[in-house]
Amino acid sequence: GQNIDQPTEMTATEGAIVQINCTYQTSGFNGLFWYQQHAGEAPTFLSYNVLDGLEEKGRFSSFLSRSKGYSYLLLKELQMKDSASYLCAVRDRDQGGKLIFGQGTELSVKP
Amino acid sequence: EAQVTQNPRYLITVTGKKLTVTCSQNMNHEYMSWYRQDPGLGLRQIYYSMNVEVTDKGDVPEGYKVSRKEKRNFPLILESPSPNQTSLYFCASSLYGEGGEAFFGQGTRLTVV
Which of A29, B31, B56, B108 has the lowest CB atom count within 10 Å? Predict the structure, then answer.
């Protein structure tokens, strides 16, 4: 089967660091994506991991461990505009390359 | 500019009145899909297409149809909309295979009364 779990909501303080975890189970893993989605808007791509390790892109980093079925998104120097939903998604080659989304983590950044 | 364009952005309609939501991409992507997003349920795939004339059901296909006559267009058709199809809909496209992040359209907020 397939399953993606991430926390429903998190709160953090402006300027701090926050880590959003994602665990997954899928038969034909072919990459993990993180998206940011502001309320009522389209998801926008943040990062992609297909090999184990850390990918860094400015204030955002994403980590993957395929053996553990685990990823995290790390956001540094939090800004108010980072308040959004963060979606973890796994591509499954056994399902025609389908992207399977978690339910998203609603992050609130407080002053 | 690379983009996925959906229309309309907002639509209020009545039960049973057929409607079509259009989706067009300019990136020559093979893979296109439709999602609906509902509170507490996340993004759920309705239908997807791996190339022209190749479509398949996603997780929640009931009540929807799609077609892929050209590579760039992937319309979503609701033959007889019902109130439980009130939702936020997104079209997405990507390259098929390794990598290839999905690019999303702006979304269509549909209300069926």
Answer: B56
Which of A30, A45, A96 is facing B101, going by the closest CB pair?
A45
What value, to the nearest 5°, has the Cα angle with vertex B36 and ends B30 and B38?
155
Residue A25: closest CA among A105, A87, A100? A100
pLDDT of A24-61, one tens digit each? 998 889 899 999 999 989 999 999 999 999 999 999 99
Q: Is A99 on the interface with B (CB under 8 A)?
A: yes
Q: Which of residues 7-66 of B touch A (CB under 8 A)?
A: 31, 33, 35, 40-45, 48, 50, 56, 58
Q: Compute the Cα dihedral for B86, B87, B88, B91 and give only its sign.
A: negative
Pair of tokens at residue B101: 């992040």
